[in-house]
Amino acid sequence: MQQVQPLPRTPISDSFYSHQVSLYVFCCVGMDSKFPTFYTWTDDLAGRGSVEIGSALLAHLDTLDYEGNKVLRLFCDGCGGQNKNSHVIRALYHWLRVKSPKGVEEIQVTYPVRGHSFLPTGRVFGRIEKTL
Hints:
The protein is 29% helix and 20% strand.
């Protein structure tokens, strides 16, 4: 998930004390895809906790093609409040047991070591921040 983006972006200091809308962006990038999938919402619709991340992740899993794949491998950043917690793991377990296609037998989740690895979503988020 991307760092919270306050909207509108304005250099005027008076807006600092006004309420700005927070934009939340969750991104999924396939290993062979150059087209990331974004899930966006604002703070008036939902928060940015593990429940929201789990919902977005389940929605994304329902859109993928798993033909010939027995193992689903996910690489997530290690943010404990969003990705690295029991809510997301339970959501993945539910998807595997109830909603997954017949060929998928296992889910492997990898949390890279902070500061020693680079996820493709980092580049995507950098472009978004530059545009905003």
